[in-house]
Fold this protein.
Amino acid sequence: MSLYERVKVKCRRGWWNYRQSRRLLKTRKRVKRMEGLAWGLFAIFCWGTLAAAAGKALDAAHPAWVLLGAFSAAAVVFALLPRFFGLGGESESPGGKIRWRGRLLGLWGIFFFHAFYFEAIRRAPIVEATLINYLWPLFIVLLAWLVLGEPFRPVIAVGAALGAAGAALVIGGQGVSFEAGHVSGYGLAIASALAWSSYTVLLRKWGGGRAYFLTASLWSVLASGLWLFLAGLPPPPPVASWGAILYLGAVAMGAAILAWERAVTGGPVAALGAVAYLTPFLSTFFLWLILGKPIGSLTAIGIILIVAGGAVAARRYS
């Protein structure tokens, strides 16, 4: 074989290896995005059970008692299970400013989202409060565009619009009527939606979420105790309610938040926000299954729109 032929063969092999490397890199990126969507769907499934579990717990307990027990269980999950979700152990940043920013961000997302939502349910009818609270996926899509600079693709806008329409039908299928006396509850529901959407987007922007989960949950236990004291120490919940309270902390808070953190650190945030409209579909299903809430025709149409919206938004990343 001549020198020219040997060089030609080596160039061909080099070009083949280069193409294979690029193909492998694209595949790994695609797999990472799909893994992010999968973990996000697991978190959404857990949150789908939150309304039913919270309804059972809040029937006989003050919200502060529910949060105190739930965050105690969540702290155990954050201490023992991060590696199960593929989240290696991380220590808090040694920098004072970054450390306090991470702690406060964790407290904002973990404690205030649930505190605002539970108090909104107490001050306003659960139908209207939940309808407003389910604006958080749409807020994620918008904040990902405004804060992270993610491209606001038409397919995501269509998915978010379908999801918003479906959420309105699912939650409003029983009949929604807003009253002026419930304004504070409506405001708390909006605050709850903003708390979680801003936490999700800022977690992607600043990072360090799981390093502060345990600290944030312990701070949430203290904040719940302070709320309990300011509320005049209402009587503790009955024994029968503690199962729902511990489930809220271990699964709907602890496991779901770990899975969501895994999702937003590796997956497409805007698509996750649109796919999160599956939450009211699951909430309606579990409210029917556990609490016996009926599912009307408008709710069924809304469920179809929600699933369609999530599928449309996620298709760009499949």
